[in-house]
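During the first year of the project, the team set up a workflow for recording each protein of interest as an amino acid sequence followed immediately by a discrete structure-token representation. This format lets reviewers and collaborators read both layers of information side by side without switching files. As required by the reporting guidelines, we include two representative entries from the current panel. The first entry is reproduced here exactly as it appears in our internal archive.
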Amino acid sequence: MSPPGAACYLKREVHARERPFPARAGDIVLRDAREDDFDALLALWRELMDLHVELDDRFDLSDNADQRFFNYVDTAQSRDDYRVRLAVHREEIVGFAIACVLPNSPVYRARWIGYINDLCVTASMRRRGVGELLVHDAVAWLRQCGAESVEVYVAHHNAVAQRFWRRIGGTEYLERLSLDLTRFEPGARD
């Protein structure tokens, strides 16, 4: 089942000054990721993952994490229901967002849910409106594709990301918990 706007993949560059929402991003251009962008995209993703591993060891990466990330990005770029966008500042890739639109459980009124799966801005470019620019771009695309709501996962221990998402309008919806499996081993006590 394809979302209502499955052929909604816009392939064009957008300059920050063209956007109808406020952004302090100045010389940022948003564009679709290309094959030759992978090394820069991987470096940004590694920066994001290193931060998360530092915050919580449950984010420890597998030995082949880079290859798996490449496969994920490659698959996302080939699908109409995913979008990989880059923020470029003076020819340097400084951020990215990966979004998708997926069907919701049929028991709910909202049929299509948009997800911003990944959002990353390099440390030197944070607090300049780049993340907000990427989010607005992703939300506009998701809505065009038929998403009736947009959801994100935010690491519990990433206070900076928590504040960012709340500042731009994120509210609590579900809480994802992790169970310590050692508590469920035979003979384990509370």
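The second entry, processed by the same pipeline in the following quarter, appears below.
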Amino acid sequence: MKKRTIIALVSILLIAVICIIGNIITVAEKISEMSPWLGYAFYAILLVLTVLYVLWPTLKIIFTPELKPAGEEITPEEKKETDEIVKKTARNVFILTSISQNGALDIFSSLSMNISMINKIVEMRGKRPSFGQLLRLYTRVAASSVLIASADEALNEINLGELLGLSGINVTAAIFKSATNGMLNAYVTLRVGMTTLRYLEEGSEAFKANKSAIRKEVRRAAIKRLPLVVATGVKDSVFGVKNWF
């Protein structure tokens, strides 16, 4: 990977991390206003979660042998199992980021669940993408999560009810905003999961040679699968609530 590309990806990732830290500090300050000990507890819990769901899976991926440049054959059973992992993760991302109503939590949960998904795919294959490809995948998740959270905040400032002449009625409300947030995060997860699988299937040489075509194919496949993921997420959420009563 070219030096300029590495610098660009690292810069984007650092910007995303700074935004994540900024959101976390904001939340921690609000919690600390209620009690300093609650603030300390928040940081402690966040540290434990970061180690368990970000750092540890990342280390496991790093210490997995790198895939051969020519790639390795993936059996239909392995591909089916991987597809299920990707769809399940995308569904969980949709559910959690739809109901959280918190930008910092959305960014952290989306990043951690995507890293966990990559780790599961790598564990199943016994091989990992190159460090350059992992950096691209991590950057895509982090940057996309920050952008989606920022867009979510922007939606708070828009009142479609007023735009439509319906005074006092905010048509955007929580449902539209939450559903949009969840769908965008689920779409990113689908793309990351399918890109990881294609890389492990094709190998670095073929993937690099056909990168543009593969990206287009992955985007189309992600858009095609998104409605089913959203429908499943809504269904699971509704029945989950019903089971509480």
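For the second entry, the following points were noted during internal review. Confidence is low (pLDDT under 50) at residues 241-245. Helices lie at 3-34, 36-62, 76-99, 103-125, 131-155, 160-163, 173-209, 211-242. Both points are flagged for discussion at the upcoming steering committee meeting.
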